[in-house]
Amino acid sequence: MEISEISEILKTAGYPVNQSGSYIQTAAIWRAGNDPTSVVVYPKDNKAKDFVSGETFDIGELFRRVFSVPKEQNIEDFLKAKNFNVKIAATPKESQIKQQKIFDS
């Protein structure tokens, strides 16, 4: 999903959007937040981080919160009904850091 598509969806929902390079900052209006830098969206990683609540979630969950869409409803179908033809990527798996085991002599 492109950064411009995410910005457009958030602006349509009435969220303040500040695009800075490869990420977007916005407010968490869904939880009555008003700080325009409290949520950062990283489109490349398909993640959003709410720095006030400490939560990290995928972009699909961000749109669920923005539009108050229940978990049972498909978020892509909901956005398509709002004339946004977007494909939300699956949440990427986090790779584990491999380290060499060091044993006491």
Describe the 3D structure.
- The structure is a single chain.
- With 105 residues, the protein is of the alpha+beta class.
- It is 25% helix and 18% strand.
- The protein contains three helices and five strands, in the order αβββββαα.
- Strands 1-2-3-4-5 form a five-stranded antiparallel sheet.
- The N and C termini lie far apart (51 Å).
What is the chains' assembly state? single chain
Succession of helices and strands: HEEEEEHH
Shape: globular
Strand content: 15-25%
Mean pLDDT: 89
Task: Quickly give the structural class.
Answer: alpha+beta
Helix content: 10-25%
Task: Describe the structure using short key phrases.
single chain, 105 residues, alpha+beta, 5-stranded antiparallel sheet, 3 helices, 25% helix
How are the SSEs placed, and which strands pair?
Blueprint: H1 3-12, E1 18-20, E2 23-26, E3 39-42, E4 47-50, E5 55-58, H2 59-67, H3 75-81
Antiparallel strand pairs: 1-2, 2-3, 3-4, 4-5
